[in-house]
UniProtKB/TrEMBL annotation:
CDD domains: yflN-like_MBL-fold. Residues 18-202 form the Metallo-beta-lactamase domain. Pfam families: Lactamase_B. This is MBL fold metallo-hydrolase.
Length: 223
């Protein structure tokens, strides 16, 4: 675990930062797959954790949440429209025919029945504000700290290709994004903030992120 901005720690849970979590003050953001929960717990050992926020109810972000919350005895919070999916461990999928079944099965994770809604606009940890950034999931939230331009964006953007692992800002895979057009809107809104540091769910941290994020937003199709 390393400090990447004031009171913001990066937990790289898989090689090449393929799956990330973050500790902001005493708030743990995301918990990776269920199999990675031990790694999360090891990383935060000896640190105060008071709350666990999940950017969105997907297996690779909330999969470890039940174990982590049980071990740390902390409340779990997610964007309001993702609370039901967090409670049941069944992500929202919108795909044609058999593909929907395959992705739904892959996406199943241990539900966290006590998940509570996280209010948009409320403050989390050391100066972060909760932003509503739907599309990749219905209730996807991001965390934004204006004073030093730090953005925790979950999967609104990936900073690596999940296929080749090559770094670079890009859209998340459409197959796991039930509303691609809405997610593009969220990308544009985040780009307008001109963040200095982008901390994504997948891929390395990106410094001087405003220009590459603006470039990504500019080349997205308008739909
Ligand atoms: Zn993800």
């Amino acid at each position: 675990m390393r400090e990447v901005a004031e009171d913001v720690f990066h937990l790289s849970l898989l090689p090449r930062d393929a799956v990330n979590a973050y500790l902001v003050g005493d708030v743990l953001v995301d918990a990776g797959y269920a199999a990675l929960a031990k790694r999360v717990l090891k990383a935060v050992r000896g640190r105060a954790v008071a709350r666990h926020v999940v950017t969105h109810a997907h297996v690779d972000h909330g999969g470890g949440s039940r174990k982590v919350a049980e071990a740390l005895q902390v409340p779990v919070l997610a964007g309001e429209r993702d609370v039901a999916a967090m409670r049941t461990g069944e992500m929202v999928v919108d795909l044609p025919g058999p593909l929907e079944k395959v992705v739904s099965r892959y996406g199943r994770f241990p539900g966290v029945p006590q998940t509570e809604p996280l209010a948009i606009g409320s403050e989390v940890g050391p100066g972060f504000v909760v932003l509503d950034t739907p599309g990749h999931s219905p209730g996807h939230v991001s965390l934004w700290r204006e004073r030093d331009g730090v953005l925790i964006c979950g999967d609104v953007v990936n900073t690596m290709s999940l296929v080749t692992t090559r770094p670079g800002l890009q859209e998340p895979p459409a197959i796991f994004t039930p509303d691609v057009a809405r997610n593009r809107g969220s990308v544009r809104e985040l780009a307008a903030l001109e963040p200095r540091l982008v901390l994504a769910g997948h891929g390395p941290i990106v410094r001087d992120a405003a220009a590459p994020l603006a470039a990504l937003a500019a080349r997205l199709p308008q739909d």
